[in-house]
Automatic annotation (TrEMBL):
Domain of life according to the entry: Eukaryota
Protein name, as recorded: Dirigent protein
Subcellular location: Secreted, Extracellular space, Apoplast
Alphabetical GO biological process terms: phenylpropanoid biosynthetic process
Signal peptide: 1-22
Role noted for this protein: Dirigent proteins impart stereoselectivity on the phenoxy radical-coupling reaction, yielding optically active lignans from two molecules of coniferyl alcohol in the biosynthesis of lignans, flavonolignans, and alkaloids and thus plays a central role in plant secondary metabolism.
GO CC terms: apoplast
One Pfam family here: Dirigent
Organism expressing this protein natively: Hibiscus syriacus
Family to which the UniProt record says this protein belongs: Belongs to the plant dirigent protein family.
InterPro entries, A to Z: Allene_oxi_cyc_Dirigent, Dirigent
Keyword annotations: Apoplast, Secreted, Signal
Subunit structure: Homodimer.
């Protein structure tokens, strides 16, 4: 009799453990935004479209006739661009931007970009920023929104002002001034 009651208790304990494990949420607690910080970042994205090691390549394209545009519409590109401290190709690499750029609309001068900016040096080594926005490629000042981040940039939000430093048929160099609010 006593043995049975011990095993019954054991079963009850096991069942209550299962019940605790099936709970997937914590108790909600107050969020204190006073602990947030703001950081400004300044770097240059270097994109090579040609040559032996292009950093952006077309991976899919619609089979439609487009007007004689150098940037065809309905095109998807895979991008892995180094981020450098300066506009010179020899300046220090501090990270890379990886993601997709899609010219989705009929207007081939607008690109939507989905990039993760990962940093490989300095204070933010190992951290990354997620940026997403559409941009008119012909505009001299563009903007991207920071929609999140990892590592030091957890819970990040902010914006990047992008200044086209150089754009020609084979190379693109963009200056980024990013303002990030994060933990
Ligand atoms: C592209 O579309 C045209 C017309 O529909 C077709 O003749 C051609 O075979 C297509 N090319 C490819 C690579 O699918
Ligand atoms: C392509 O060019 C033709 C002729 O100039 C024009 O009518 C048409 O609107 C253009 N299409 C696009 C998508 O720009
Ligand atoms: C596209 O280029 C061809 C050859 O250069 C030219 O004949 C044609 O008029 C151009 N079309 C448009 C819409 O600019
Ligand atoms: C494409 O964008 C350019 C630049 O803003 C604009 O002049 C043109 O009218 C747009 N064309 C279409 C078809 O939306
Ligand atoms: C960045 O972090 C990685 C991984 O912890 C480390 O191997 C690397 O040496 C670091 N680079 C710099 C420049 O600090
Ligand atoms: C584009 O600019 C780069 C850097 O200044 C230069 O090396 C390259 O030759 C240029 N390409 C063209 C097609 O003008
Ligand atoms: C970006 O920041 C740099 C350095 O702080 C500054 O010299 C430059 O004028 C800024 N550019 C823009 C477009 O805000």
């Amino acid at each position: 009799m006593k043995r049975t009651s011990v095993s019954t208790w054991f079963l009850i304990v096991c069942l209550s453990l299962v019940a605790v494990q099936s709970q997937y949420n914590s108790k909600s607690r107050p969020y204190d935004p006073k602990a947030e910080k703001v950081t400004d970042l300044h770097f240059f994205l270097h994109e090579s479209l040609d040559g032996q090691n292009p950093t952006a390549v077309v991976i899919a394209q619609a089979n439609i006739t487009t007007n004689n545009s150098t940037v065809p519409s309905r095109t998807l590109s895979a991008v892995d661009d180094p981020l450098r401290t300066g506009p010179e190709p020899s300046s220090e690499v501090i990270g890379n931007a990886q993601g997709l750029a899609v010219i989705a609309g009929v207007n081939s001068t607008v690109a939507v970009t989905y990039f993760d900016f990962g940093f490989t040096g300095g204070e933010f080594n190992g951290s990354s920023l997620s940026m997403f926005s559409r941009n008119q490629l012909t505009m001299t000042e563009r903007e991207m929104s920071v929609v999140g981040g990892t590592g030091e940039f957890r819970m990040a939000r902010g914006f990047a002002i992008i200044n086209p430093y150089l754009i020609n048929a084979t190379n693109v160099i963009l200056e980024f001034n990013v303002t990030v609010v994060h933990y």
